[in-house]
Write a structure and sequence with these properties.
Layout: E1 5-9, H1 11-18, E2 23-26, H2 30-42, E3 47-51, H3 52-57, H4 59-64, E4 72-76, H5 85-98
Parallel strand pairs: 1-2, 1-3, 3-4
Length: 105
Amino acid sequence: MANKIAAIGKRDAILPYKAIGVEIYITEEKSEFKNIIEKLVEEKYAIVLVTEELAENFADIIREYNEYMIPSIIPVPGTEGSTGYGAKRLREAVKKAVGADIYAE
């Protein structure tokens, strides 16, 4: 089985991923985002990169797929830079996995 990677977001934010072989899906619409995620789950994509803006706006859709082992849905910064959402989600995942906030100051 080939490990497939996809990126979802605004054109300018995800277009560079195409240069390294990542399948890109350009959207900002919630219904279209949901359809794309469903397709990627069905096609067994290993990793789905989602711009932080979309990940935050459509967190309810992403939550539906957090129980699955595949795909791993990872927020990435958009063209405006990081909003901090991806780091927050990583911190929450690590806290859940190890039972402590290892990033606490």
